[in-house]
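ok so for the tutorial part 2 we go from a plain amino acid sequence to predicted structure tokens. step 1 is just haveing the sequence, like this:
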Amino acid sequence: MGSKDLRQPVVCLASVSPRRRELLSQIGVPHVVVGAHIDEAARPGEGPRDYVKRMAREKALAVRERGEALPVLAADTTVVLDDVIYGKPRDRDDGIAMLQRLSGRLHEVLTAVAVADARGVDLRLNASSVRFRPLTLEECNAYWETGEPRDKAGGYAVQGAAAVFIESISGSYSGVMGLPLFETAELLRAAGLEYWWRQTKAL
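step 2 — the prediction. this is what the tokens look like for a chain of 203 residues:
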């Protein structure tokens, strides 16, 4: 059988996020995973959109410049409220404070996606809006104890237990998860890469 050929990677995912790997697999893109491991601190005066685009670009280039032969796909996600960037919580107090700020508010989730290959770097930005219902302190504490918020931008996961907090989403659900599939597919097409690869080859 041709199962080995069907799994031949066509892109390198510069992220160890299991959510991004699941999303890339969802659209049938065989891939390998290599962590980018870059400094993710924002620069003084850097706006949220410039920041998230720079992070995606630098992640893709960091892996590509280590000698990766495959095109490198990278993404970065941040939560924005009142033009303030909310990344991963530093600790419990920071995580609880983030949830309390998001409580009852509409916030923006920005995810930039980049592909680095022999041509250079191509990039897309997705912006989505998420509204939380009002949260009690007890709910914020209980959610933190699930362990889910610790490595998530904004201190929550749309696809997890925090779904009960979300009143509405306008934009891309996969973008809020961390890899907007519409923009990702556009980048793959531009790079001459296939998606739905396993599905179409199996027909």
